[in-house]
């Protein structure tokens, strides 16, 4: 167990000290980063040999599931890309405040204000997907625990087909988005929602698992916005953290790169495709990218319901997909109608 030698009234909890290196002395605890749903700290420990070790603590009160999500997600991503993920150390609850729950990991120094270049950013993501491809523990889509996007719980119940899994998630997310807006009437969203499930999802998900094709689950991070991917201090290797992991279709992780909210875009997608092949049918990849982007936009609209622009972005992209499918349907039916009429 480490000891807290700081000259402060409130020392670190005994269970947290027990997770720190034996014989170490806690010399500083400072806030680290920003989080809307928990507190985060940088803990520096002086070791008997004169060296220092630094740790990152995330603590929530009384949200146990948030820490379970962080622990399981980070452990699983670390298993496949340890060079890019801070090593998880411990999760637990405080001894003297059992309603406070913590997640402890190694602290990695990062360059805060520099978005990694496409080759650095996508090398880590491609490595995560490639190394984990086909290694889902039961061959299904899902995750051992329900993970969190912000404070929104994600239902990761194991499912045998990708279309079924993603359809269930989208129904759940859109229901919660509606609840977050207090059931506020939005005529266009209400028109589009049933068409999205009846037409869009079958059109762009079902072909992935038809005509001899299949989706092999891989581990996806599911929240790869630039705030969760930073250069380490070498300015070359990226650090990837704050996953809300799941075993799913690798292209889900690419949705965020299309989102105009972030300064990423096509160069990042092109870099990724150098390492990982596009799923078949390849001609649908752009529409699937928009479809997967919608997940992030729906969740943001749920987290920040007072920002009405976020909801309009959801509606705009949902309409884009519905219009595309209906245009395809019209194109298919048009020639048949003309041929029939010409025979009369």
UniProtKB/TrEMBL annotation:
One Pfam family here: Fructosamin_kin
Single GO term (MF): protein-ribulosamine 3-kinase activity
EC number: 2.7.1.172
Enzyme kind, highest EC tier: transferase
Catalysed reactions, as listed in the record: N(6)-D-ribulosyl-L-lysyl-[protein] + ATP = N(6)-(3-O-phospho-D-ribulosyl)-L-lysyl-[protein] + ADP + H(+)
Highest taxon, organism lineage: Eukaryota
Residue ranges of the TM segments: none
Protein's UniProt name: protein-ribulosamine 3-kinase
Phylogenetic lineage: Eukaryota, Fungi, Dikarya, Ascomycota, Pezizomycotina
